[in-house]
Amino acid sequence: MTKAELIDKVHGIGGGELTKKQVGEVVDATFEALGEAIREGRFSYPGFGTFSVKERAAREGRNPKTKEQIQIAASKSVGFKPAAKLKDSL
Q1: Count of structural domains, the chain
Q2: What is the DSSP track for 64-83?
Q3: Alpha-carbon gap, residue 29 to 65, rounded angstroms
Q4: For the segment 7-63, what is each residue's pLDDT rounded down to a tens digit?
Q5: pTM higher than 0.90 for the full model?
Q6: Residue 69: its pLDDT value, please?
């Protein structure tokens, strides 16, 4: 689903009380708040799931082309654990 498709879907569910531009602003604000909550540590939505920051430790890797050993820096990523309700519906 694209952003435009999401806006269309939410606009249709809302009964057309808001314009598509207003719905787009609400969707943008929602994802901005979601991103901020994840950056602070975690975001949980009942019935959907939990987003959290996952930390990866530094490690040694290997360049597949040259077989040379390289050092891979520590990094952070976003993890998602679906709620049982969402998982069961798949």
Answers
A1: 1
A2: TTT--EEEEPPEEEEEEEE-
A3: 44
A4: 999 998 877 788 999 999 999 999 999 999 999 989 999 999 999 999 999 999 999
A5: no
A6: 94
Spatial separation of the C-alpha atoms in residues 88 and 17, rounded to whole Å: 33
12 phi/psi in degrees, rounded to 5: -65, -40
Residue 54 host element (H or E): strand 49-56
Q: Exposure pattern of 37-68 as b/e (b: 16+ CB <10 Å)?
A: ebeeeebeeeeebebeeeeeeeeeeeeeeeee
Largest alpha-carbon pair distance within the chain?
A: 60
Give the range of the structural domain holding residue 81, as residue numbers without chain letter.
3-89
> What CATH number has the domain bearing residue 63?
4.10.520.10
